Amino acid sequence: MTxxxxxxxxxxxxxxxxxxPLAAELExxxxxxxxxxxxxxxxxxxxxxxxxxLSRDVDMARKFANERLLGDLLPVxxxxxxxxxxxxxxxxxxxxxxxxxxxxxLKVASDNGLTAVDPAGQAFNPEHHQAMSMVESPEHAPGHVxxxxxxxxxxNERLLRPALVVVSKHD
Length: 171
Description:
Layout: H1 6-63, H2 67-85, H3 91-111, E1 114-117, E2 129-136, E3 145-150, E4 152-155, E5 158-161, E6 163-169
Parallel strand pairs: 2-6
Antiparallel strand pairs: 1-4, 3-6, 4-5
């Protein structure tokens, strides 16, 4: 027969009670750690997907950035092709067709932020003009544009190409 020592039972019961709260706390902490790891992984995956989506969007934007401009140029191409298909070579018809096409092209360019820099008679501006040479010109003030070799162009107020000009000088 086994005899039960009441002091032994009380000690075993006290040990079980003291380890149970610690075990419960440990279990709760491990469950919280597992939940936090899962949340972290989920958020990391979501950020990675968002980064990939943004990268795709940027690539598509670059690829089709000039879509509107090129769509607007299609009528200009149509006009040039129609002009080339017109029978007969009269200079008047050819000039008229070219002028019409140039007007269409300049409108498309203007609608997309392109403006011409044609500084004939204006003061020389080194930010928008490139001096090709200087000449004496009594009818122009010193430092003014006498002749424009090639127009310059601004794209949304930023210089795309400077105007090539001849500037007046006085001795």
